[in-house]
Amino acid sequence: MGTVTNPTLPNMTKTIRQTFSNWRKSSNGQSAIQILKRSQRFLCPSCLQHLPQDYHVHHLFPISKMDSSNSNLAIDINNLVLLCPKCNLSQGAKIDTRFSDLEPEDRVSIDG
């Protein structure tokens, strides 16, 4: 038997990505990103390097795994971390538990 897929999931993911994109451009999104930058001390919490201008907004619970029951996580600051592109792309679409137990202001490495 083949794998059964939900045909609405790609559309849901697209909708959630659009919601996130719109939020990121909004004043609320820009404020949240500034809070994350300051709370992370402008560092990537994974490699502890200075966040470059082309930083990525990383979702601890990835958008690709969201559905209508948890789509609010796309714009929840507690689900977001700013990472350098290299660290973000190396994570892929896996659920990231490295920073989930820390408050946004504590997401820089404990050793940092």
User: What is the element string, with H for helices and E for strands?
Assistant: HHEEH
Can you tell me the CATH architecture? 3-Layer(aba) Sandwich
- Largest sheet entry: 2 strands, antiparallel
* Helical proportion, percent range: 25-40%
The total count of strands amounts to 2
Uncertain regions spanning at least 5 consecutive residues: 108-112
**CATH class descriptor name:** Alpha Beta
**Strand portion:** 5-15%
**How large, in whole angstroms, is the Cα Rg?**
15 Å
Helix count, DSSP H or I runs of 4 or more residues: 3
Would you tell me the overall average pLDDT? 85
> Which shape, going by the Cα principal axes?
globular
* End-to-end distance: 50 Å
Q: Which class best fits the helix and strand makeup? A: mainly alpha
Strand order of the largest sheet: 1-2
* CATH fold topology: His-Me finger endonuclease fold
The figure for the number of domains is 1
